[in-house]
C-alpha cells in the first residue's frame, strides 16, 4: 500500500435496506483505504426505485458499523451535467448510437432463425445490434444511447487493468473478441435517466479521485466496460479489488428484498457491530 493509503468508496443504491453483503462491501472498502480515504457515494440515478428512508438507513447502519466518511457525500442524482458532458465527448468520438429497442424487441431479434444462441452479458442479453447503423443526428428524446463496442475498441490500444483482489490474476487484459461476444453494445444513457450505471460509475470514480475500486465479483465483467470507458474519456484508471459475494445458507446471493438479512434486523435483534464482522469472517 502506498504510505498515503488508497482512496476507496462504497457506492450503494438506496433501493432497499442494507444487508450483510453490503456491510461486507463497505467494510472491505474501508479496510482497503488504510491510511487513505474511504468515501461514500449514493447511486440514486434510478429515482423511481430510490427512497429517502432507505438512504437515511444507509447512513445510520454504516455509522453503527463504525465507519466514517467525509461530508458531503456525492449523490448521483446531482451529477447530470457531468454525465451529459461525458456522453457528448463519446458522441464526438463516434462511438455512440441511439437505440429505440424495448426488451421485447431485443428478445424477438435474438430469436430470429438466423441468429446464434443469445448470450447473457453483464446487463442481460447481449444486444443484437438492430439500431447500430442509426446516426446520433437522428436521436429522439426518448431513445437510449448505446456504446458501439467495435468502434470503441478500435479507438483504444490494448487495455488491461490491475486486479488487487484474491479471486483473479493481477493483470487483467481486455480481450476484444470476448468483449464483442459476451458484453456487446451496452446502454450508456437510459431513456428515463440520461445516464446509466456504467457511465455514472466511471465519471464519478474519476471525479472522486478513487484509486482503488472495490466491488463484488458479480461486477467483474462490468469492470472491463469501465476501463474501456476510462480510456475513451481519458480518465485515470484505478486498480480493482473484486471480492467474494456473501451468500445465504443455501448459497444464494443476498438480495435487497431479503429483509431477514438486513443490518437493521440484526441490530433490532441485539447484534453488535463485532457480531456482524465475525459473521462476515472479518
Ligand atoms: N451501486 C452498485 C451496487 O449497488 C455498486 C457500485 C460499483 O461498485 O460499481 O451494486
From TrEMBL:
Record-linked InterPro entries: aa-tRNA-synth_I_CS (IPR001412), Glu/Gln-tRNA-synth (IPR000924), Glu/Gln-tRNA-synth_Ib_cat-dom (IPR020058), GluQ/Sye (IPR049940), Rossmann-like_a/b/a_fold (IPR014729)
Keyword Nucleotide-binding belongs to the record: yes
Species this chain originates from: Roseinatronobacter thiooxidans
The keyword 4Fe-4S is assigned to this record: no
Gene3D superfamilies, per the entry: HUPs (3.40.50.620)
Protein family (similarity comment): Belongs to the class-I aminoacyl-tRNA synthetase family.
Residues covered by the Glutamyl/glutaminyl-tRNA synthetase class Ib catalytic domain: 8-276
GO cellular component, one term: cytosol
A molecular function GO annotation: glutamate-tRNA ligase activity
The protein's name: Glutamyl-Q tRNA(Asp) synthetase
GO biological process per UniProt: glutamyl-tRNA aminoacylation
The organism's taxonomic lineage, starting at the top: Bacteria, Pseudomonadati, Pseudomonadota, Alphaproteobacteria, Rhodobacterales
PROSITE patterns hit by this protein: AA_TRNA_LIGASE_I
Alphabetic keyword roster: Aminoacyl-tRNA synthetase, ATP-binding, Ligase, Metal-binding, Nucleotide-binding, Protein biosynthesis, Zinc
Pfam family, one: tRNA-synt_1c
Entries under NCBIfam families matching the protein: PRK05710.1-4
